[in-house]
Structure formats: structure tokens, C-alpha cells
Amino acid sequence: MIDRRRIASVVDSALELAVVPSWSRIGFDLRRSLMDWDDAALPRLDGRVVVLTGFTSGIGLATAMRLGALGASLHLIGRDPGRVGTVRDRLVEQSFTVTTGLADLADLDQVRRAADEIGSLHEQVDVLIHNAGALLRSRAVSPQGHEMTVAAQVLGPFLLTTLLLDQLRTATGRVLTVTSGGMYAERLSVADLEMDDAHYDGVRAYARAKRAQVELAREWTRRVGPAVQFHTMHPGWADTPGVVEALPTFHRLTRPLLRDADAGADTLVWLAAAPVAELGPGGALWLDRRQRSTCRLPWTATPAGEHYRLWRWCEERTAAYLTD
User: Fold this and answer.
1) CA 211 to CA 213: how far, in whole Å?
2) Per residue in 228-277, pLDDT tens?
3) Catalytic (active-site) positions
């Protein structure tokens, strides 16, 4: 008798070694077929509050649509009032329960106001999803003077998580961060996290911030324990407006292989809805509903003590926003 699970495991491992088929729509389609993913079996989320940043297009919008269909109460954070209003109306037309907030995650003052607003609207938060972020070709700085990529994708999420941590201490509380496979090319170095004008490279800045996200999830897990689960996921290569804008050549060359936004959002939705017992210990990195190694190249392994230095770096830069 053919052991379907054994075949699925072998195919999954072979795909992951090859990278390109793994991260493309080929890998997603094969895994979905072999592993018999049944979206209808995902638990309902009625009564649970999901806070999602970066929801107006691509993976964020696909995530909001699917979580809303599962009954979640959505609190959605975006920075463009027009787009926020348009997408909110679209979701409300689906009879989803939706509240929204305006905030640029790179601006720590706005992050603090967003957290206060969430606290006034919701007694608890069951799932916090960090999806906002963009690859910037030119260096820019946040209102607090931090390089924009790091501000929006490391400091802003760190502050929002810290401010909402007590509300996340529920039976199903979890924090999920959308990272990128590009982080595999970079080693965590806190001293090099913010690139200066002379050495700025948007792709590398983005990859370094994404590496920091993965390492912070592990550090959050170590410090908070099982009271809240922290996980990261990378969506593979997805055809989203962000990719078209930031990586036009990559998009043009790989478009036939790219996943659609719904496929890119699949593991994120599953992580938000699955029972805690199915996720195992926190601090994991996921692709296509399976845990993955956080390091593929030996020279990108995180040096001893760098987790602690990253944590202290984030604490020092957000401390002023934690006092009343």
C-alpha cells in the first residue's frame, strides 16, 4: 500500500532543496495536492480579534478576505486613507466585522496611537499579523531618524507587539510576521542593520530587516514563553503589486512561476486559524504549512549574543513610547 504521507514528505523535502520550484507556484500546487489541505476544515474564528497591518493589496488583502470569511473580527491598519476606506467598504460589503486604523508603521508616534486605539476598541487581541512593509530603492529616514526599512519592519512591529502584549495573552494568542526568503542571504548583524547613504542597497536592507524579524520571533518566544506564540512565515514568490513595483525585472522574468496572492497568504491564514497544538513550539519559520530551517547557508548563522543585542537595540529605540 502506498504511504501517501511518506511520498508527500519526500516530495516536500526535494522541493525545498531545489528552492526555485519550492517557492514558486509549482511547490504550492504540489504540496496542496499531496498533503490534502482542506480549507473547509479550518476552525471558525468567530469572536476572535485579528489585527492585520498592510491589508490594502496583495497578500494582506487576500489574508483579510479569508480571515473575514472565517468569522474573525478584523482590525486593519493602513497608512493611505483613501485605500483604507475603499478596501474597508469592500470587506464590509462581504458582511465581515471590520474596524480600521490609520498608521505608518515607520512612525513610532503613529504606532503608539494605533495601539491605544486598538485598546479602546478591543479588550483582547487573538492574532496580531505584521504584514506591512516595502522594498525601498532609495534610502529614506523615519520621523524618528531611523532608516525607513528598519523602522517599518523591525521597530514599528516590535513596538506594536510590546504595546499589545497583555491583550495577546489569550488561549489562542499569537503574533505572526510575514518575512521573505531573501533573508536567507543575510546574517544578523545589529551594527549593520541600518545602512547609511554611502552603502545603501534596498534589496540588502530589506533582507537584513527580514532576517531581524525571524530572529526576533525566536527571542520573543524565549522571553514570553507559551503564553503567546510567535511565528514567522515566508510566502514564497508571489505575484503582488509590491513585487511588480520593487522588483520589475524579477517579476518580468519569473511571472509564469509566481504564486497568486491567495497562495502567498495560505500559510498565514492557516497559522492564524490552526489550533495551537498543531503549531508546536513558537519561534518557527514556516513555508507552505511546514516548519523550515531559518538558515540555509552556514555563513549566515546568527552569532552568539546577537539575539540579545538586537533585543536591546529595539528596546532602547522604542522605550520612550512605552510610558504613559
Assistant:
1) 5
2) 999 999 999 998 888 888 788 888 888 899 999 999 999 999 999 999 88
3) 206
